C-alpha cells in the first residue's frame, strides 16, 4: 500500500473502490476480454469432447455442474464475506424444480428441444426465491449465527423431501426425463458428449456473467462490504441490500448447478444433496482459492475427483464389505479435511493463489534473463 492510500480514511477508500463510475472503454475491453476467454474455453471444451471417452465426458460435465455452485459460493463468501453452509440445499431446490418441470412436460406429452431450457430457467427462478428469503434473514446475522441459519437450511430442505414423500417420492427421489441429442447430430451421437455440451454451455455463460459482475460496480460494493461494513455504510452503500443481492446471485448459480446435476444423473434424491455436500462445497472453494473464480474451477475438479480417489483407495485394501462401505463413505471427508489443512499451511491463497505466485515468479525470472 502506498503512503497516499495509507493516509486516506477507510470510508474514502471505500468510496473510491465502490463508487467510481469507471471508464466505459475500460468496461468494454473487460467484457470483450472475458468474452474472448469464454469463446476459447468453449472451443477447447468442444475439441476435448471429441477426443476423450464417454465416461470422461460425463465427468467433465459433472465438473461443469459443480463449477456453477462453487463459482457462486466464491462470490458470496470470498467477495462478500458471507459464510454459507446451506448451498447443498439450494442445489437440491434447483434439482427438484427441474425434475418437476420435466415430468410435467412429459406427462402432458409436450416435447421439444427448448423444454430443458425452460426447466433450467424455472430452477433458477425457484432457487432465487428461496435464496432471497434466506438472504434477507442472513443479512441480519453475523458470524456463527449466519452459519447456523444456513446450516438449518441444509438440514431442513432434504428432510422436507422425505417428510412429504407423496410429492417428492421420499428417499427414492424423482426421475428426470431428458430428450436424446438432436437427430441433426447423427443417430449414433454419444449422449455423454451431448451432456457435456449442455453443462459446458450453461457453465461458461454463468462464468461470463459472474466475471463481469465481479469487475462491475456491484463487485466493488461486494468487496467494500466484506472489508469494512461501517466504512461501506458511511460511503453510502446499503449494506443489507448488497448482502441480499450477493446471496441471491450465489443461490441462482447453485440452483443451476443442482439442476444440471439432476439432468446429468436423470434422477434426483435427497441423499445426493445432504449436509456433507454443503461442507464439501465450502471446503472446495477455500482449497481452490477463496475469492477467485479460477479457484472455483479447481474446487469443482476436486469434488469430482475425490469419489474416484476414495474408490481406488478402498479397492487396494483388504476389507469386509461393510468396512469398505463405511470407509468409502467417510474417506472423502477425511481427504478433504487433510487437504484443507495442508493447503492452508503451504498455500493460504489456495491452489489458484499458488499457481499465480509461481506464474509471477517464472515471469520475473524470464524478464531478468532477457535483461
Walk me through what this model shows.
The structure is a single chain. It is built from 16 helices and 2 strands. The protein has 2 domains: 8-273; 275-371, no CATH class. By secondary structure, it is mainly α. The chain has helices at 3-7, 10-18, 24-51, 54-79, 87-107, 115-138, 143-163, 165-168, 191-215, 217-227, 229-234, 239-265, 275-289, 293-316, 321-346, 350-370, and strands spanning 174-175, 267-268. A two-stranded antiparallel sheet has the order 1-2. Helix 4 crosses helix 13 (275-289) and helix 13 runs parallel beside helix 15. Mean pLDDT is 85; it is low at 1-21.
What's the helix and strand layout?
Elements: H1 3-7, H2 10-18, H3 24-51, H4 54-79, H5 87-107, H6 115-138, H7 143-163, H8 165-168, E1 174-175, H9 191-215, H10 217-227, H11 229-234, H12 239-265, E2 267-268, H13 275-289, H14 293-316, H15 321-346, H16 350-370
Antiparallel strand pairs: 1-2
Shape: globular
**How many helical elements?**
16
Whole-number mean pLDDT = 85
Q: End-to-end distance, in Å?
A: 28 Å
